[in-house]
């Protein structure tokens, strides 16, 4: 059997693209793990914030909102971009970067005290991004997989690629267990493994870097209110959000270069996160309940990579989605499907400059 498209990786990137390609031929998702979404997708901080990822990512995030909202995957939370001592200038820079594209409002100390109880002295200014939402990541990923399944997408798990060669316009893809897959187009949606998949296929050596991000769940006193906004330190020292049961999710906003694999939280990063929390607020950490880490994969310019490779015919990049792959999933899948099939960008993403994400930008 020759598939029209074989997608390597069944996380949010591969699952969303497969769903969007339903009706465009025979599609197969190839997942190395026993279940889709085991790595980055299953370890997300689960928020939708238009400014997150910078101006190159914002059009994709904004274009994804209506699709996510219509599906019931978003819950309004709001975000506070908090300036510590000496960081007020970074608020001005953020306003200048996003201009009228993202709704941002200045907050003074009085307004902050109403949003973040126990805020320490020196944290007197912030920007409010009121549109920020929580994302139900598990439901979104499951929905994409279900849409694909209903549309005839095949899913192979325990399917690690060990070789890929193109002969007569068809990719011959060898799996570690001896199975083989044939497809006219090979899509690299392998996340942290994107560089390895490209090397197997002889594609362009785009330097996709996996960076470890740590998250810790804490019990704190006083317990955070369910309405506490997402709090993002404007200088990138930490972010936090409330979880169910009065718990707190906290990250030191770390980006540690790490080989692709099943990563775990580093104890030093957990300690740094707690130290930064106590620098910003006077809450008491009652217990550290659990910690985890995931790999976020970035291209050199920190923008995603979507499009056909110049060196390897029939090889399509859908990778380097950093920490924003979930919040941009609907728009990214629409753009990716249009580029892969040669179609026109749908209306929801008609304003997105797809060329901005082309793999050829790296030469």
Structural class: alpha+beta
Low-confidence stretches: none
Main beta sheet: 9 strands, mixed
Total count of domains: 2
Taking Cα atoms only, what radius of gyration do you get, to the nearest Å?
21 Å
Shape: globular
Mean pLDDT: 95
Distance between the termini: 35 Å
Helical stretch tally = 8
Q: CATH H-level name of the largest domain... which superfamily?
A: FAD/NAD(P)-binding domain
The counted number of beta strands is 20
- Strand content range: 25-35%
What is the string of SSEs from the N terminus onward? EHEEHEEHEHEEHEEEEHEEEEEHEEEH
Level-1 CATH class name of the largest domain: Alpha Beta
CATH architecture of the largest domain: 3-Layer(bba) Sandwich
Helix content: 10-25%
Say what the CATH topology of the largest domain is: FAD/NAD(P)-binding domain
Enzyme class: oxidoreductase
Keywords: Oxidoreductase
Organism: Sphingomonas prati
EC number: 1.4.99.6
Which characteristics define this entry?
363 residues; 2 domains; 8-stranded mixed β-sheet; D-Amino Acid Oxidase, Chain A, domain 2; globular; 9-stranded mixed β-sheet; alpha+beta; FAD/NAD(P)-binding domain; 20 strands
Structural commentary:
By secondary structure, the protein is α+β, with helices and mostly antiparallel strands. It has 2 domains: 2-42 and 137-207 and 301-362, FAD/NAD(P)-binding domain; 79-130 and 209-298, D-Amino Acid Oxidase, Chain A, domain 2 (2-Layer Sandwich), CATH 3.30.9. The protein has helices at 12-20, 58-70, 88-98, 109-115, 137-150, 194-201, 267-280, 329-341, and strands spanning 2-8, 27-30, 47-48, 74-76, 79-83, 105-107, 125-129, 133-135, 154-156, 161-167, 170-175, 180-188, 209-221, 230-233, 239-243, 247-251, 256-257, 284-298, 305-308, 315-319. Strands 5, 6, 7, 13, 14, 15, 16, 17 and 18 form a 9-stranded mixed sheet that branches. The mean pLDDT is 95. Residues 4-338 form the FAD dependent oxidoreductase domain. GO terms for molecular function: oxidoreductase activity. It is an enzyme of class 1 (oxidoreductase).
């Amino acid at each position: 059997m020759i598939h029209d498209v074989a997608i390597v990786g069944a996380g949010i990137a591969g699952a969303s693209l497969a769903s969007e390609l339903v009706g465009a031929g025979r599609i197969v998702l190839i997942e190395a793990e026993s279940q889709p979404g085991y790595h980055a997708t299953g370890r997300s901080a689960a928020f939708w914030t238009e400014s997150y990822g910078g101006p190159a990512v914002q059009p994709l995030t904004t274009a994804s909102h209506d699709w996510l909202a219509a599906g019931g995957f978003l819950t309004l939370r709001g975000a506070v971009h908090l300036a510590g001592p000496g960081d007020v200038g970074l608020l001005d820079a953020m306003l200048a970067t996003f201009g009228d594209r993202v709704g941002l409002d200045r907050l003074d100390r009085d307004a902050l005290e109403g949003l973040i109880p126990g805020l320490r002295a020196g944290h007197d200014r912030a920007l409010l991004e009121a549109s920020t939402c929580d994302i139900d990541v598990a439901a979104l990923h499951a929905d994409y997989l279900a849409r694909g399944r209903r549309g005839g997408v095949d899913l192979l798990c325990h399917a690690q690629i060990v070789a890929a060669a193109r002969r007569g316009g068809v990719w011959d893809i060898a799996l570690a267990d001896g199975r083989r897959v044939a497809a006219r187009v090979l899509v690299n949606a392998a996340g942290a493994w994107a560089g390895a998949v490209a090397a197997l296929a002889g594609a362009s050596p785009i330097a996709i870097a996996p960076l470890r991000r740590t998250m810790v769940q804490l019990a704190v006193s006083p317990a955070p209110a369910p309405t506490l906004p997402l709090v993002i330190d404007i200088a990138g020292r930490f972010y936090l959000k409330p979880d169910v049961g009065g718990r707190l999710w906290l990250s030191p906003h770390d980006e540690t270069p790490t080989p692709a694999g099943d990563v775990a939280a580093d104890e030093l990063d957990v300690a740094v996160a707690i130290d930064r929390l106590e620098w910003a607020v006077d809450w008491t950490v009652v217990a550290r309940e659990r910690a985890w880490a995931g790999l976020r994969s970035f291209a050199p310019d920190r923008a995603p990579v979507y499009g056909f490779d110049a060196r390897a015919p029939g090889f399509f990049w859908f990778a380097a989605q950093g920490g924003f792959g979930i919040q941009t999933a609907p728009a990214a899948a629409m753009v990716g499907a249009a580029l892969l099939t040669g179609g026109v960008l749908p209306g929801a993403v008609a304003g997105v400059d797809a060329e901005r994400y082309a793999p050829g930008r790296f030469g």
